Amino acid sequence: MSRVYICSCFGITEQQVKQHADSGACTPRQIASACKAGTDCGSCVRRIQALLGRGACPRRDLADRSEQVLSELEDAA
C-alpha cells in the first residue's frame, strides 16, 4: 500500500484527511484543528481544499455560526 502524503510537515496522508472529512471536517481550518495539517508551512492547504471539494457538508452551517463541529475528533485525540 502506498501512502500519499498531503502534509509533509506533520506526515498527514490523503487517507487521514479523508477520514477527518468523513467525520465532519468541511474546511481546511477544521482539518488543521483535527490533525495540524496546513498549520506549518501552508503548502498543503490547496491540496486539502481540493480533497474536500465543494460538496455539501452537513456541519457547514454550524461552522458558519462558529459553533464547535469537531468535538468527536477532539475527544478522540
Q: How would you summarize the topology of this molecule?
A:
Blueprint: E1 5-7, E2 12-13, H1 14-22, H2 28-35, H3 45-52, H4 60-64, H5 71-76
Antiparallel strand pairs: 1-2
Question: What would the keywords be for this entry?
Answer:
disordered C terminus, 5 helices, two-stranded antiparallel ribbon, 6% strand, mainly alpha, globular
What is the gist of this entry?
Mean pLDDT is 81; it is low at 73-77.
What does this structure look like?
The chain is mainly alpha-helical and 77 residues long. The chain has five helices and two strands. The chain has helices at residues 14-22, 28-35, 45-52, 60-64, 71-76, and strands at 5-7, 12-13. A two-stranded antiparallel ribbon has the order 1-2. The longest helix is centred in the first third of the chain and has 9 residues, at 14-22. It is globular, with a radius of gyration of 12 Å. The termini are far apart.
